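Run: sequence + iron/sulfur cluster -> complex structure.
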Amino acid sequence: MASNFSGALQLTDLNDFITPSQECVKPIKIYRKPGKVAKIRIEDDGSYMEVAESGEEKKLQKARITLNDCLACSGCITSAESVLITQQSQEELYNVLQENLRLQQTGELDKQKVVVVSISPQSRASLATKYQLSSEVAHQKLTGFFKKLGVHHVFDTTFSRNFSLLESCREFIQRYYEAETNKTSLPMLASACPGWICYAEKTHGSYILPYISTTKSPQQIMGSLVKDYFARKHGLIPSQVYHVTVMPCYDKKLEASRQDFYNDVYRTRDVDCVITSGEVEKMLEKENISLGEVEGDTSFSLMSGLVSPGGGLVSHIGGGSGGYLEHIMRYAVSQIHGTSVESLQYKTLRNQDFQEVIVEVEGKKPLRMALAYGFRNIQNIVQKIKRGKMTYDFVEIMACPSGCVNGGGQIRPAEGQTNAELLQKVKESYTAVPCVQPDLWTGVREIYEDWLGGMDTDKARAMLHTQYHGVEKIASALNIQW
Ligand code: SF4
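>> structure
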């Protein structure tokens, strides 16, 4: 099989890669013709030659694999798939910006796209660490860098994470009470990690999917905010906006490409293109500039002029993967037990990536939650659910060991630096940003009203929730022969 690989990615980048369970089933269907046998020879340049019995040689066509082929496959998993992506790259962003420039020169301004870049806090921490900047300054300089290239607006996905956290909390309470009559309501499993979702859909299908929270990830809620709320505020239709996110992993490209996040009416995706932290580093190299030298842009805006409570960058408590456990536990304690907790006590179990938090209130059933990062711990959780031995009410599941700050798309260690040293620095940068509580932020409440008509409305469910699809094993069904 031959395919087009992204030059940006190497096998060593795949820290969330388990092992391919099957060969890629997509490339080329070859039907064996009775009585005829051909050999395939691999040339020095990697091309494939079909050599017939007669000695006749024919160069085989290169297989092109789209992202959707990968999403429909039951073979390899997680970021290994993203090497196949051609639509989701910094080159695509450059193409859109160049086209905008051309349209400006020809006076066809109405055909230009409004380009929006939404930066994740994990990517910002990675870039801030690489260029030895504070998160605040890194954000200003990234804003300046993208705007100089022709981007119109630069946002921060921490803002959309407010909605993801609030919806997850509300969903948990709903499931908690439903659990008395519905045995797949609990444990609720986190949904923000596409590496985990991809694995669950392909490997465990309909058995595990009902347990996964339907709340969209911060990236996809940002997609809904930008293509629906922001576009309307600016008198645009969704397809007039080109939305790029900067993310810590390649799996976010898979997530953005899901059919569930495609708008059939306007023929556009909520997130058109995902670039990783490492790909931003490559863009800086291409422009021959270090982030430290870029002129910062201080016009910090969360969305349509909205600012944070302190006016600058904000974060959420609870670690580098978004703090889902932290927020859900606190909310559950207040809603179910009618009290509050000062701080949560995390108990490390088998390893640092498997921790539990139990909150006991006298006379009440304890609330039990865990975080499970990396596939070893995920498999353990899945097996416990299958055997009916699960005791947790919620599990914050993330595919990468150490979570999103350690995603496969983050910038690699410098020469002589270990992974652990770099990770520690990225974590410090990530946690140096002041935290806000989503439910106490007036701006978030206002957008719920203005955009969605309040919480728990039909529009809120459509914009903030998604669904999952078990994937049939298709290798045998396709009757592929090599
Ligand atoms: Fe991406 Fe975070 Fe999941 Fe890793 S844990 S695959 S960085 S979403």
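>> summary
Residues 1-29, 71-84, 474-482 have pLDDT under 50 and may be disordered. Residues 16, 193-195, 248-249, 251-252, 321, 398-400, 403-404, 407 surround iron/sulfur cluster (CB under 6 Å).
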